[in-house]
Amino acid sequence: MTSTQSTSLVNTFGLTDEQIMMRDSVLAILDRALPQHSIRELDEAKAFPHAAYDALAEAGFLGLPFPEDLGGAGGSFTDLTVFLEALGYHYAGLAQGVMTSLIYAGQHVAMFGQPEVKKEFVPKIAAGKIKLALAMSEPGTGSDLAGVKTSAVRDGGEWVINGTKVWITCAHVADYLVVVTKTDPSAQRHRGMTTFLVPADAPGVSVKPLSMLGRRTSTTNEVFFDNVRIPANYILSEENGAWKNLMACLGKERLTLAAISAGNCFRITEYARDYAQQRIAFGQPVSDFQVIQHKLVDMHMMAETARQSAYRVAALLDGGQDAIIETSMAKITCTDNNFKCADMGLQILGGAGYSMEYDMQMFFRDSRVGPIGGGSNEIQRNIIAKRIGL
């Protein structure tokens, strides 16, 4: 069986003509630059999909979330959702790499960098000339972001950074790191934090790739900072004021996670459907059996539910709403449904699903990180509980 899909299940009704053209163009570019048969080869080699990333950059798509005066396209939240849903549909590993550079890290530069830093770096990010990673989590502070211990101390016209970060996605291919530090160790939680832009090749920076279960083309890393010196103007927040900036970026970050997972739900569902239509058992395709049909219907329902929740958040954000509850809901719904679809798809394929010869095992591995990363789904439920007065 090949992983080429016959008929797409994605209903694009409600998108503008321009958004549909964008989606079609993105998928056409990726079909050429990252054909489905080569994705698993990259996964097995744990190699970043540079050719596909560069092709998207050349076509101008990496500028979508950045303002026009900084070399971007000034896209809406809905435009961004269309783009990342398409990436997630084609390959979630590439989508994660793009999201990490443009959204997780890039938005901190575009929104909070010094004017001269924005002018220098944002056009390069939008053009795909440099990649970024967000260095936030630490060995003892995953979900507890307020507990970061990596320090930054002012020394004349420079800052000196020391500490360790872990689970840092794409740090191994990043040219620059957006690093969350503690600049006032005596400050209360959520205070005394500052964010900096750090060259990945600066003296004292070392990156160690980690061996992960899934998303192996955009793997995570340990990052060590040993007396790393950076210019004072590489600060990306007010001194000791990074917390509010980190919170300001969460809506866009969680929307992109939701969009990627929604797109991937459709890829998995179509892959399982196509396999079931080709697999003959008891003299007929297994797709003729009601038990298989019901599984595929449930997967399609989960994919569509995920997609609608992502676009609902995009519409709210485009309308100027903070959408805090809805964003957390979408992140939970989309990432949970992504893994459920992969689990059910693996069951439909049976032994083939458990085999490394088929893509379903990769979908299964790649989807499992969704409920963990980007603020675990347990943390998202805590956020919703607080917002509804619990």
Q: Can you walk me through this structure?
A:
By secondary structure, the chain is of the alpha+beta class. 50% of the residues lie in helices and 13% in strands. The protein has eleven helices and nine strands. The protein has helices at 17-33, 36-45, 50-58, 77-90, 92-112, 115-126, 242-278, 290-318, 324-349, 360-367, 377-387; strands at residues 132-135, 151-155, 158-165, 176-182, 193-199, 205-209, 221-231, 280-281, 284-285. The strands form three sheets. A four-stranded antiparallel beta sheet has the order 2-3-7-6, with no helix packed on it. Strands 1-4-5 form a three-stranded mixed beta sheet, covered by helices on one side. A hairpin with a 2-residue loop joins strand 2 (151-155) and strand 3. The protein is globular. The model is unreliable at 1-5 (pLDDT under 50).
Read across the widest sheet, the strand sequence of neighbours is 2-3-7-6
Task: Using the alpha-carbon principal axes, give the shape.
Answer: globular
The major pleated sheet works out as:
4 strands, antiparallel
Radius of gyration: 21 Å
Instruction: Return the string of H and E elements.
Output: HHHHHHEEEEEEEHEEHHHH
Distance between the termini: 50 Å
Helix content: 40-55%
Number of helices: 11
Mean pLDDT: 96
Per DSSP, what share of the residues sits in E-state strands of 2 or more residues?
5-15%
Number of E strands: 9
Uncertain runs: 1-5
Task: Tell me the structural class.
Answer: alpha+beta
Which descriptors would you attach to this protein?
alpha+beta, 50% helix, single chain, three-stranded mixed beta sheet, globular, 390 residues, 13% strand
